[in-house]
Amino acid sequence: MARHLRTNIEIDNFITKVIAEANHHAPNVAAIIMPISTAVRARLNLAVDKVEVYERNGNLARTCWVTVGGNRYTFTYNYSSGQIDLKAGSLQGFLRSSFDNHTPHAAISHQAARL
């Protein structure tokens, strides 16, 4: 089930939680989460766009769906590659990009601009 995050405070709390968990379980992406969040949030208008996160048993997980301009995108951690994947639509959607701590900020900005 997805929980709709409606405010910047809710999004901030989610990002803080994801970074803390990445520091423990996925340090290869921990430093890139905030730059991704910042770039994507610069594109959002929370009055019309959506940020949703996977919720399991009342706890927020790390999968995040962002709908910008009517187009939905999924951010999820890929355990095989050790990267954050950006996919079009759903978890099974077309892979648009992958990110880790070595991804240049210009590449993140480029992908966010294409949302």
From TrEMBL:
Domain Integron cassette protein VCH-CASS1 chain: 12-105
Domain of life: Bacteria
Gene3D superfamilies recorded: 3.30.920.70
InterPro entries: VCH_CASS14
Name recorded for this polypeptide: Integron cassette protein VCH-CASS1 chain domain-containing protein
Annotated source species: Shinella kummerowiae
